[in-house]
């Protein structure tokens, strides 16, 4: 974990209220997809935790939705430097998947799953993808999925939680999975999929590295910090009623 000043390569709108920022910075600390950085936004006291969509040896890419004043200010930064706190979070452990994996996401939760499915493909896994969005204007990553050649389905039904209906319709509800998105969607995925699963959780964070305990929630094995022990947890660990 360290503070780093990164150079903004580009920061562009890619869908309704959604932006993608590419940064020139160190990526050697990334061990798994699903890890995140804390981004400083001007004089705002708290940093914004943003998951990493993808990366290479010299860059990381962050995808975020404008949801408040902080992310609005972030979307206006087109050049210059930006400070991040890196080395955060535990991501998806793909060592546990033997031959196939279902990647199922909702809304902006689809962003970290792009790195996950790319890593899965590099490992030779058979990857299937379901992404749910409220409408087509908010849809993300369709061109990238087509280029990767994976079998995928989108759900546009007003509630991205209903990506679960698509999982059942496709008879993919027996596949081991990775999921990220709204709590209601992930809860439903875990309840309706009979196989092994990993879920990436999101909550409000203070420090982002486990010191403040602001993101601690009770799991079946005790209190866990989403920023430190997570954000990725096994489905059987999670007490969904404790999540906001």
As a percent range, the share of helical residues equals 10-25%
Number of helices: 5
Radius of gyration: 17 Å
Kindly report the average pLDDT value. Answer: 94
| Main sheet specs | 6 strands, antiparallel, barrel
Which strand order do you get reading across the main beta sheet?
1-2-5-4-3-6
Task: Describe this entry's structure for a reader.
With 244 residues, the chain is an alpha/beta fold. α4 runs parallel beside α5. The strands form three sheets. The chain has a six-stranded antiparallel barrel. It has a six-stranded mixed sheet with strand order 9-8-7-10-11-14, sandwiched between helices. Strands 12-13 form a two-stranded antiparallel sheet. It has helices spanning 69-75, 110-122, 142-148, 163-169, 183-192, and strands spanning 2-15, 18-24, 36-39, 48-55, 59-65, 81-88, 100-106, 126-133, 151-156, 177-180, 197-200, 216-219, 222-225, 232-234. Helix content is 18%, strand content 36%. The two termini are 27 Å apart. β1 (2-15) and β2 form a beta hairpin. It is built from five helices and 14 strands.
Summarize the structure.
The chain has 244 residues and is α/β, with parallel strands linked by helices.
Keywords:
alpha/beta, 6-stranded mixed sheet, 14 strands
């Amino acid at each position: 974990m360290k503070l780093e000043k990164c150079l903004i390569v580009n920061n562009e709108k890619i869908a309704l209220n959604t932006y993608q920022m590419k940064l020139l910075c160190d990526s050697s600390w990334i061990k798994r997809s699903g890890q995140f950085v804390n981004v400083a936004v001007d004089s705002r006291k708290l940093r914004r935790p943003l998951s990493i969509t993808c990366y290479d040896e010299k860059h990381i890419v962050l995808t975020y939705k404008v949801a408040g004043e902080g992310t609005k200010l972030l979307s206006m930064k087109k050049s210059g430097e930006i400070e991040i706190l890196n080395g955060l979070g535990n991501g998806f452990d793909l060592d546990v998947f033997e031959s196939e994996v279902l990647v199922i996401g909702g809304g902006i939760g689809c962003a970290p799953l792009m790195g996950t499915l790319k890593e899965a493909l590099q490992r030779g896994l058979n990857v299937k993808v379901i992404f749910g969005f409220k409408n087509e204007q908010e849809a993300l990553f369709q061109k990238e999925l087509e280029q990767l050649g994976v079998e995928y389905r989108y759900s546009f039904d007003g509630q991205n939680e209903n990506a679960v209906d698509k999982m059942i319709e496709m008879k993919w509800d027996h596949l081991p999975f990775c999921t990220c998105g709204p709590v209601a969607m992930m809860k439903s995925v875990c309840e309706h999929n009979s196989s092994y699963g990993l879920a990436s959780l999101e909550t409000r964070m203070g420090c982002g590295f486990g010191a403040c305990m602001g993101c601690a929630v009770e799991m079946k094995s005790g209190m866990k910090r989403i920023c430190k022990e997570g954000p990725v947890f096994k489905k059987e660990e999670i007490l969904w009623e404790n999540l906001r």
